[in-house]
Known about the structure:
The protein has 150 residues and is α+β, with helices and mostly antiparallel strands.
Amino acid sequence: MADLQDLYQETILDHYRKPRNFHEIGNPNRQADGFNPLCGDKLIIYLQIEHGTIQDIGFVGSGCAISIASASMMTEILKGKTEAEAKTLFANFNLLVANRTDSQPEPEGMGNLTAFSTVREYPVRIRCATLAWHTLRAALDKHQETVSTE
Ligand code: FES
């Protein structure tokens, strides 16, 4: 178990140190701002969606290792996904970090996002892990206002 946790930690630190897709994108047609009121950290997610598929995605902002790594891995897994698939991943990520009990199976198709399964043991960090995802959901739903993790 310790080895697995080390691997998870390594994955999260790698994405924090070298966040993928950490930039604005050329022609976004959706975007949303996200805010964690507990710490004041903010992220902006940019999406380019064509014919219901995410062609490009990027993010900018500031946050802790967990929030930046979560945003980085989220952008990696979402490129090429449909809006419906993105909403399913949003639901499964929330299940992974917040709602799942030990008797429930891990959601499938999560790739290295599984690294965040340890977050559920630290409730205050759940908002860090889900900040990018709530922001994504607002962008998919075309909400213009800043969304909060509250
Ligand atoms: Fe601010 Fe984690 S401490 S998002």
